[in-house]
Amino acid sequence: MAELHATEKIWMNGEFVDWADATVHVGVHGLHYGSGVFEGIRAYETPKGPAVFRLTDHLQRLHDSARLIRMKIPYSVDELQRASLELVAVNKLPSCYLRPIAFYGYGSLGVPPRDNPVCVALMCWPWGTYLGEEGMVRGVRAKVSTWVRMPSNVIPHASKATGIYLNSMLAVQEAALGGYEEAILLTEKGYIADCSGENVFVVKDGVIYTPSLETGILHGITRNSLIEVAGSLGYEVRVENLVRADLYLADEMFMTGTAAEVTPVREVDDYLIGDPGPVTLALQHAYLEIVQGRDERWSHWLEYVTPVRTEA
Ligand code: PPE
After folding, report:
1. Does residue 31 have a pLDDT over 60?
2. CB of 48 within 8 A of CB of 304?
3. Is the CB of 197 under 6 A from ligand 1?
4. Is the predicted pLDDT of residue 69 greater than 60, yes or no?
5. Residues 23 and 119 sit within 8 Å (Cβ to Cβ)
6. Among the ranges given (99-113, 270-284, 297-311), the one the predictor scored with the smallest mean pLDDT
7. What are the tens digits of pLDDT across the range 245-293?
8. Contacts for 110-115 with beta carbons within 8 Å, 24 or more apart?
9. Which among 9, 160, 189, 204 is annotated as catalytic?
10. For 117-140, what is the mean pLDDT?
11. Does the CB atom of residue 159 touch ligand 1 within 6 A?
12. Interval between CA 12 and ligand 1 midpoint (Å)
């Protein structure tokens, strides 16, 4: 979906290193057992320079993800926040995707981490639309996966842990082999959970629905933002369990995520939902205005790379 474009620097364990030098040994614990946590964050070009959308909230989620797998990140949210802003500045990117990652490094090998240090890195690179330009405009085709979402008593999917993404990988590969752009995963009980890399919303009779956190899904920051924004625009948002039929009978459907932003869905399992509808288009527009710093009401969600100078 996204090719990695080398940028100048990567922040690794407290230092800026050249892109090509940000390497690890094949014996790192995280590689063998998927014992890591990560984030996906976007920085946007705004009238006041580059700004990172809800950076502190993402870094807090990184810490929460680590807590769920009993990992201690040796840098505070504040330290990572400053390093992230500096990273975007150092790489001179007007807009980019940021990928913080923390994983058990080189030390002992064997399932329980022992003396393994927790390695932390922040990288960023330009990343365009997640599900394609056409998908953003016309909507994507999605498929309910035969792979079930990892139940919360297997691994807490509320943790954005690296190992969990094998579950997402299997689902999205299966969808792609069938000619679809994205997979929708269900819980063991058959409720809609989330997509391989996005949360799900449907619109029916003017009301917006999205699955509850009870389904064990990742607590999407875009999902959370959209619920607030939709409410402020006067829409009713209901957070409740949904089943497949709710998707097939939806008037509109869209997916939300940092990478995918607000991506409309035009078909699910070959049931036609149709062109992006008015609610989807209104929310997609509102979101893109907010992240690009064009809506003052939500300016508290933007963390500027260069502190904004106030006129004397
Ligand atoms: N569910 C999953 C499984 C998920 O991976 C994401 C983010 C979301 C929901 C939405 O969360 P949020 O970004 O906080 O709104 N998926 C990331 C892409 C993963 C990838 O590397 O590919 C992302 O959007 O950054």
Report:
1. yes
2. yes
3. yes
4. yes
5. no
6. 297-311
7. 999 999 999 999 999 999 999 999 999 999 999 999 999 999 999 999 9
8. 111/33, 113/29, 113/35, 113/71
9. 160
10. 94
11. no
12. 22
Nearest alpha carbon, ligand 1 atom 3: 197
Q: Is 197 helix (H, G, I), strand (E, B) or coil?
A: coil
> Looking at ligand 1, which residue's alpha carbon is closest to its atom 11?
220
Mean model confidence pLDDT for the chain: 96
Q: Is 204 a catalytic residue?
A: no
Residues 6+ apart with CB under 8 A from 243: 190, 191, 192
- Enumerate residues 6+ apart whose C-beta is below 8 A from 112: none
Whether 312 has a pLDDT exceeding 50, the answer reads no
Is 194 close to ligand 1, i.e. is its CB under 6 Å away? yes
User: pTM value?
Assistant: 0.96
Fold of 9-125: D-amino Acid Aminotransferase; Chain A, domain 1 (3.30.470)
310 falls in which pLDDT band (50, 70, 90)?
Answer: low
Cβ of 198 less than 6 Å from ligand 1? yes
**Looking at the chain, how many residues does it have?**
312
Domain boundaries, the chain: 9-125, 133-295
Task: Return the closest-CA partner of residue 235 out of 251, 216, 219, 218.
Answer: 251
Euclidean distance between CA atoms 255 and 70, whole angstroms: 30
Task: Evaluate: CB of 199 within 6 angstroms of ligand 1.
Answer: yes
| Distance of CA 194 from the midpoint of ligand 1 (Å) | 10
Answer yes or no: CATH 3.10.20.580 is held by domain 133-295. Answer: no
Residues 6+ apart with CB under 8 A from 196: 168, 169, 171, 172, 175, 182, 183, 185
> Is the CB of 259 within 6 Å of ligand 1?
yes
pLDDT at residue number 256: 98
Q: pLDDT-derived band of residue 4, with 50, 70 and 90 as boundaries?
A: confident
- Closest ligand 1 atom to residue 223 Cα is 15
